[in-house]
Amino acid sequence: MTKLSPKLSKDKSINIAIIAMGGQGGGGLSKWILDTAQTQGYLAQYTSVPGVAQRTGATIYYIELFPAHLADKQKQKPVLALTPIPGDVDIVIASEMMESGRALMRGFVSAQTTLIASDHRDYSIVEKQEMGDGRRELSKVREMSEKIAAQYICFDMGKAAREAGAVISSVLFGALAGSGALPIARDVFEKTITESGRAVPANLRGFALGYENVQGETKAEIPAKAQDKKPPSASVTLLLDHMKKDFPPRAHAMITAGLKKMVDYQDPDYARLYLERLSEFTSLDSAKKDWRLTRDMARYLALAMSYEDTIRVADLKIRAARFERFRAEVKAAEGQIVNVSEYMHPRLQEVCDILPAWLGKVVLKMRFLNVFFNKGRRITTTRLRGYLLLSLIARRKPARRKSLRYAVETVRITTWSEQVKTAAAHNYDLACELAGLQRLVKGYGDTHERGLKNAAKIMAVIPSFEAQKNAAKQLSTLKIAALKDEDGAALVEALRSVS
Amino acid sequence: MAERSFHKEVQDLKIGAGEEFRGEGILAVTKALLQSGISYVGGYQGAPISHLMDVLADAEEILSDLGIHFEASASEASAAAMLAASVNYPLRGAVTWKSTVGTNVASDALASVASSGVMGGCLIVIGEDYGEGSSIMQERSHAFAMKSQIWLLDPRPNLTSIVDMVEKGFELSEASNTPVMLELRIRACHVHGQFTAKDNKRPDFTLRQAMENPVRDYDRVVLPPSNFKHEIEKVEQRWPAAVKFIKDNKLNEFLGGHKGHQGIIVQGGLYNTLMRALKIVGLADIYGNTDVPVYCLNVTYPMIDDEVAGFCVDKKSVLIVEEGQPEYLEQNINTILRRRDIGTKIYGKNVLPMAGEYTGQVIADGLRKFFKKPAAKTPASLSAADQSVLVETVPARPVGFCTGCPERPIFTAMKLVQRKLGDIHVSCDIGCHLFSILPPFNIGNTTMGYGLGWSGASAFNTKSDKRTISSMGDGGFWHNGLTSGVGNAVFNKNDNVLVIVDNGYSAATGGQDILSSRAFNKTKTTNNPISRAIAGLGIKWQRSVNTYDLGAMTKTLTEALTTPEKGPKVILAQSECMLNRERREKPIRNKMIKGGKRIVRSRFGVDPDTCTGDHACIRLSGCPSLSIIDNPDPLREDPVAHVNNDGVGCGVCGEVTHAAVLCPSFYRADLIYNPNVWDKFRAGFRGKVIGFLQARADKKRARHSFGEV
Predict the structure, then answer these.
(1) Which helix (H) or strand (E) holds A61?
(2) CATH number of the domain residue B423 falls in
C-alpha cells in the first residue's frame, strides 16, 4: 500500500455548493461570492450547468475558493474540483426547503458544513397537481440538518426577499455574510452588491435582512395593541349560546367556524338549521371518543350546506373586502386604477340551480337553451354593468332555500347524514370516515360532478365491507384513491380490491 | 436574440499577449481560436456548447475584423461539411456542437472529411453532454474518433490547458492531415478561471484567396480509387505522424510521483476530479502533489503505445480512470501490453463502475479498492434509515415549461382533446415541447431525435379509427424535419397530424434565431415563414393557431384528428417564446411607464374563498406561477390555488378555466399606469357607486357580526 508522503501540504480550499431553482438568481449569487472573494485575495473557480435544468428544475452551482497567499508561498497552483463531493463541502446554500433536503440526500452536508437554507416552499408539480393536499411534510429535513451540519441557518428567506422587494439570492448572500463561514467583513459583501450596479437598493435591503437575521439583530415584532373586543351582535349571541348549551366545548371551535360560514352563506336561520342537524350526532358521540364525530360533522356539514352555487360566487365576488384583497395581490399602487374581470362559465345547469325548484326543472329540460351557455364569459366586476349583474344574482339569496339546487342538496345531505348515523350505531370509526366523504365533493361543473360520482361509487360498495373490523380503514383507502388521479384509475383499482 | 447576451464579455477577446484573460471555458475556447489564426468557424447550438455559439454570434464583429467567417450552421451536418474548405487549402477552421447527438448528425460529413484528409488544421469542439444535467442518451464520442480516425483531445479542465490544447490541436491536425476533436465536458464548458492571453492572429491564407484561386486534387475526393488510398494513408502516414507529434510536443503528461508499483492512467478531463479524490483518500494534496505516478491523457485517441508501455512496465498494477462505456482505453491498453508481453495488471472497470458519471465520490471509492484502503467512513453521515426517510419525503422536481410559456396551452389542448377522443399516440421531438412527457401533462410516447418527431410516427400510416399526433419545434423543423418529417409524410401519403411549435427561436438551446424567426437579425436572413415552406412541399391541410387561444387550439386539434379529409395535416402553433419576448419588451414597458405613457398591464389571480382546492387548473397548466397556499377557510383541508406575481401575464391560467369549464375563481386584473382623464373620470364614478353599494352590503352583514375576539 502506498503511504501518505509527509511532504504533502495540509492547505485546503473553501468549497461552496449552491442549490437553486431557475429564476432564483443562483448564478448571480455565485458571481457575487466570486467577486467578493477575489477582492479578498482568493483564487476562485466556479462552474454550473445552465440550460434545460434551469427551465424550472434545480441547478447546482459550485465554487472553490483558495487563498492566493498560500499558493504563492508554495509556488504552486491548486488543482480545484468542478463538482461537490460528499464530505468535502464547507458551505451549502439551498434556496428552498426541499432543495436542502436533496443536499442532505446527496451527502453534501457533513459535520464540517455550514448549511444555509431557506425554509420556505416552492412546491414541485407532483405536490401541486394532487386533487387533495399533496404537500410533503419536511420537518425531518430540518431535524436531520440540525443533527448533521456544523452550523445550520434556516429561516423563511422567501418572505424576507418579498419584504425587501429583492430576489432571494440577496437574502442568501446576507445570510452567508452573517454566518461568518467566510472570513470576510460585512461591508466587503455589500460593496460587491453596490458595484454590480443592478437593483442595488433592493438587494442591499435583502442582504441586510439575511445578515441581521443570522446575527440575531432582527427587531422583535412589536405586538399590536390589544384592540377593544367588539361583542357579537344579538342574533349571533343567540346562536353561540345555543351552541354552548347543546354541544361539548371540545367541538366549539369547529362549530363556531361552521356557524360563521352559515351566517355568511345564508342567514342566522340557516345557522339554526345547521345546529339542529348537527345535534343529531352528539347523542351518538362521547367524550371518550374525543367528540371526533361531532367535530368532523361540524366541519363537513358546514361545507355540504354551503355548496357553491352562482349566488354564493356572485356574493363573494362583489364584496369590498375582496376588492381590497385583489388590489393587494396584484400589487396595485395606492390609488392606481385596477379593472377586474372574472372568468365565468355558467352552464344552463347552474342557472337552473338558482331558479325556484319547479321552474328550474322545466327550464333544464329545454336543451336548446344550451347554445347560449357554450362559451365562457368575462364579467368585469369593477364596471357598473358587471357589478350590478353580480349583485342582482347575489340578491337571490333569500330565495335560495326554494331553489332547485337546494332541494337536491337537502336530499343528499339527508341521505348522507342518515348513513353516518346508521354507521355510528355499530362502527364509530366508520361513521367518522363516512362523514369525511364530503371532502371528495368540491369544485364546480365537471369537477363537482366527478366528486359526487366518486362519493356515490364509494357509498355503493360500503355495504360489502361495513361489517368487517377494518371497515374504517378500507373506506379511508378508497377516499385517498379517489383523490389520487382525475381519471379515477386509482379508485377503480381500489374499488376492485374491496368488493 | 439569444437568451444570454455576451456583448460585454466578448470585448475581452480583444486583449493581447501577456494580459490575463478571466472568464468562462467557452470564452477561453473562442479566444484560443482567435489566437490560432482560423479563417472560418461554424456550428450548431446545444448544451453544453450553446453559449459558445452565442459568444461567436455576439463576437461576429470582432471575427470579421480578423477576416474570420462565422456560420450559424443549419445543422451539425452542415457544420461538419464546412470543414471541406480545409481539404484543398491551408485554411484553419473550427466547428462546434453538442455530442454525441450532434456528432451523430454530423457523422456522414465527418467520415468524408476524415477520409479526404485536411491540409489546413481542423478542430471540432464537442460539448460532451454526459452525466448530471444531461438530457440525452448516455454514449461516448470516443467511438466516432475511432471509426473515422479523428484524433480526440480531452484536456485537463483548467483554462490554460484547454487553450493550449486548442492551439496544439490545429498543429496536430496539420502535422497529420487529420481533423481533431476537442472534447469538453459540461462543467469544463462553464468553468470560470483565468489564463495568460496571446495576440489574436489573422489567418495567413484567406477564404477569398482560395475562392479566387481554386485548387482541385482528385486524390482528395472520396471516390474510387482515392478512397482506398485514403485508408492506407490513414494507417501508414497520418497515424505515425500524429503519434510523433503527440510525443514530441508532450501532449500527454506524466504527473505525480515516480515511486511505488501502482500507477494511474486518467483521461485529461477527469484529472481534477481524480486529484481531489486522491486528496480525499489521503494520497495527494490540494496542489496536485502525489507520490502516485499519474499518466494524464490529454489525447485519448490515438494511444501512444510507447508511452503506455513505458509507464506500465515497472509497475505491478495500473488503474485506468475512464468514464463511460465500452471501456475502449482499457481494452487498448491491455492489447498494447499483451503485444509487448508486459505483465502489469490492469484495473479499471473492475473497481470503478462500468456506467455513469465519474464523480469525486465514485473515483474515491474506486481508489480505495485499488489501493486496498478501508472503505470510506461516511463523515457526511446520514444514516441509511435517515436516507430512506428522505427518499420518501423529498419529492422529485421534474423540469417543465417556463412561466408564461406559449407551448403549455398546446398540451393543455391535447389533454382536453384526449378527454373527448380518448388517448392518442404522440410522437415527440427534441426541444422544450418534450416536457409534455412529464407531469402534469404526461403526453408523449417516444422521442427519436431532433427534427424526427413526425418520422418517429411514420410507421403508423395505415387505416385506423384514430390518428396519431407528432410534435416538432421550429428549430427541429429547420434542422431536418422539413425533409425527414414533412417531405416524408407528403411523399408517403401520411394521414396523420403534425403540430409544429412555431415560437420564433431555437428556444431549448437558448433562444437562437432561425430561418422563420420574426425578429430582425443584422447578419442573418429571418422571416421565412414555415407555412410557405410546407405549402411548397405539398401540404394542403395546414392551420395556423395562436397558442394562447386555447379554444381555437382545441378546436383545430379536434378537427385535424377527425376530419374525413385524407392526407398529412400540419398545425402551426404560433406564439413567441415568452422568455425572449419579456427580455425584449420589459425594458421598453418600464421606460414607457416612467415616461408617463398610458400602459395597461394584466395580472391574474385566484379568489381563495371560491377556490375549493381541487387543483384541476394546475393539472391542466403546470405553470410555475400557479402554486398552492394554505386554505384560508378553517373548515377546508386542501390548499387553494394561488397565482404568484412573477407571472408574465399570459392569461393561460384563465383560458384554461374557460376552456375546461373549471371554476369561477380566476380573475384578470388590468392595472392602468398613467391613466388619462377619461380613465380617471370613469374610475371615479364607478368607485363611488360601487363603494356606496358595498358599504351598504357591509352594514347589512354587520347585523350578524361574530364580533372581534
Answers:
(1) strand A58-67
(2) 3.40.50.970
